[in-house]
Amino acid sequence: MNEEYQIEYLDKPEWSIIGGGIQSYNARQAGDDNSKSLCFVIRAPNQEVIGGVIGATYWDWLQVDLMWLKEDLRRRGYGHRLLMMAEEEARKRGARHAHLDTFDFQAPEFYKKYGYRVFGELKDYPAGHTRFYMVKDL
Q1: Is the pLDDT of residue 64 over 90?
Q2: Quick check: 97 and 60 in contact, CB under 8 A?
Q3: Residue 1's pLDDT is what?
Q4: What is the mean pLDDT of the chain?
Q5: Do the beta carbons of residue 99 and residue 64 sit within 8 Å?
Q6: In the chain, N or C: fewer CB atoms in 10 Å?
Q7: Taking a C-beta distance cutoff of 8 angstroms, is the pair 86, 38 a contact?
Q8: Alpha-carbon gap, residue 56 to 98, rounded angstroms
């Protein structure tokens, strides 16, 4: 290893440099990913954001990063609507598949109800729980 180079810890990651580097490398290997973020939110009458879904489309995939609703809105159809809106937007962008991850104490059964299936698990993450990795064909 060349001693001219140093490795250091940073409290604030260099996302633009490292992310830009991996994005450039990926494009050379697999073509332009056409990445584009998506976000749908639910607003209360007072305009407070009380739920939503955040994700992105890459190549022909939808990645659902985060989905959350205030507890009093759950089991009222809002989660279903958010997920369907994200999937529909992804289809418009050419996505043919979707993936996400969720914990056993979050919503694996919710996602299964809408066609997602488990393709991987991490047991004891966190201790005593399981993290599920799920996929769906759009």
Answers
A1: yes
A2: yes
A3: 60
A4: 94
A5: yes
A6: N
A7: yes
A8: 10
| Rounded distance between C-alpha atoms, residue 18 and residue 30, angstroms | 18
Count CA within 13 A, CB hemisphere, residue 113.
10
State the residue for tokens 């494009």.
27
The model's pTM is: 0.87
Q: Give the chain's length.
A: 138
Mean pLDDT of 49-54: 96
Letter for the amino acid at 119?
Answer: F
Residue 100, C-beta contacts closer than 8 angstroms, at least 6 positions apart:
55, 63, 64, 65, 67, 111, 116, 133, 134
Residue (of 107, 118, 49) closest to 83 by Cα position: 107
d(CA 131, CA 87): 22
* Residue matched to tokens 């991490």: 122
Q: Which token pair is 118?
A: 């488990």
CA dist 8 to 5, 17, 46, 87, 137, Å?
10, 15, 46, 40, 42
Query: In angstroms, rounded to a whole number, what is the distance separating the alpha carbons of residues 90 and 36?
Result: 10
Contact call for residues 40 and 52 (beta carbons, < 8 A): yes
Q: How confident is the model at residue 2 (pLDDT cuts 50, 70, 90)?
A: low
